[in-house]
Amino acid sequence: MVFNETPQPTPQAYPVPAGTPPCNASQLHAGWLDAQGATGRLYGGIGFAGTTPYACYLEGTPMVKVFDTSHRPLAIKQQPSFGGMPPSGPALIEPAPIPPSHASLQYGQAALTLDWDTQPEMCLGSPGVVIGSAVVTIPGGGTLSVTIPTEPTAYACGGLGVSSFEPALQPVDVTVIPPEPDPPAITLHAAASAAAGSTFRYVVTLSNHSKAPLNLTATCPNYEEELFADLAHGSPPLGGKHFFQLNCTPAGTLAPGAEADFEMVFPVPPDAAPGKYTLMFAIGYTNAMTRTLEQPLTITA
After folding, report:
1. Nearest of 162, 158, 258 to residue 206 by alpha carbon
2. pTM value?
3. How does DSSP assign 147-175, residue by residue?
4. I want to staple 87 with a disulfide (CB 3.0 to 4.6 A). Which of 39, 79, 138, 164 is the partner?
């Protein structure tokens, strides 16, 4: 039996409901969070929260420009956050007060980290400046200005580190949770070619090779499907995000040795040039993909 797949976004720290629009500046208010210094680098934050009854989300690394206390622009080049934190996914924004300093983010809030050099030894011969405000370009449209209280002098040679928007985390559940079972084995059944812009359908078989029943409804794996032009040399995937949760409810529980077929639907990008590609399919729990298959796929015009 083939269970038609209905893609659902994988749950996040606070999941962003399907259909939630990106935030624009008119839906937000913001304030400066607590700052701290380490090894000549200051790390401070900007907290964001919603001002309307409607939810939205912030995602990615925005453009940030800083100004002195007289509102004159400062020539400090933006760069990735010095801490090198990876993007943490979309941050759900709902009506909430601006996060106060020294407080953890709460539901409906998000944060952005800024960092800069504070020691003259880092930039010999370069005068320091005092950052008085920051203007953040909101991905959904508009800008938001935030006053920065007196913080240590900034030296431009070290750049202005800017992180991605950081979502609020759900409270940690200290209840002991049984370990998740190993994901089922997977087999891929797919045609050898597909046309650019077409809906490519293929079948993935999940097999329970363990000696215990596998309740897919209770422990439903997430899956990732990607199309690569040159996987061996690290080409980026085509078509954006493809990270979803399997539609496990119809499959129920797999007895030892049992299998279940899932029909997968992958929209081939219409701008994919004809040629040879690699279709990658992986499953796992949360965002850890622990079983992966790859198959050549020829894209035709």
Report:
1. 258
2. 0.53
3. E--S---BBGGG-EEE---EEPPPPP--S
4. 164
